# Entry
Amino acid sequence: MSQVRLLLRRLQAAHLVQEHAPGRYRMHDLIRLYAAERAREEPTDDSDEALSRLVDFHLRTAHTAAGRSDPHRDQIHLAAARQGVVPQELTDSGAALAWFTAEHPVLLGTVDTAVTARLDAQVWQLAQALETFFDHRGHWHDWAANQHTALKAAQRLGDRSWQAGAHRSLGSVYTQMGRLDDGHTHFRRAPDLYGHLDDRINQAHTHRGLGWVRDRQGRRRDALDHNERALALYRQTGHRTGQAKDLNNAGWLHTMLGDYRQALDYSAQAVAVNQETGDRHGEAGAWDSLGDTHLAAGDPDAARPAWRQALKIADEIGHPSAGELRDKLSELAPDEGTGRRRAGD
# Structure
């Protein structure tokens, strides 16, 4: 890395690049045009190999960053790195988010570069690696555009699993955007593709997604049916992270349907499974749901400790739900959400 910095300093001294932000360099417009002309004069094989290494570097670093951002996400298998490609090291979720944020426009350009270079496998894998960042930061339009690009790449490759994955991802982002009919349409295209492959885990993910969009459409009985089907598949395959998420969703649906006994059971199971897997994000959400259910059942005294536990975890991991949890506690008891204890509490 020190050799790279030395080279960059020499290029900057020669006015070939400029450091427009700390650690960020770009070429002057005329230099960029000249470099593009020279690149077109180079042998095609050399140019293709250079582009492949560029795409591979960003793919591998994005893959690492996604894993740091969400350690419980399903991982994809990447082929061996190309010779000379050394991904950037990212030690934790903070470093991963900082890298994603800084490289956001570069990563979008890298997807376009991979399409132009006909690197269809890398196109799909890059889109998959960027999902977590787009989801956490609310970049819905980038997420949707990337997944449409990924779907076309998967269709060119004839890969049913990747086509299904792109449809499922599009179902998620369109549901996030409130385009519920589009979300449902894409979710519905995935199960048959996964069924041909006997991929029960991804079938379960898809049914959970269908439950989500049906819930947002106000069709809670349908939503619960999809969640129950997902839960059965997660249990068959031993997918504990999926079970935890689905138990939490099913608990919420039972609460909305007025079945508080079943809702409390599911939410308590979700807490336990999240604790088992070490998913603090999921555990906070499960405690929050447990509190909601106790309150809906008319037991605010039971809701209070559940929300306190959710808030404790949310504060520890920097989760954005902390403010909403403080508001819930404050509504139950003045000063509760500020951390000040009431007399006799």
Summary: The chain has 15 helices and two strands. The radius of gyration is 24 Å.
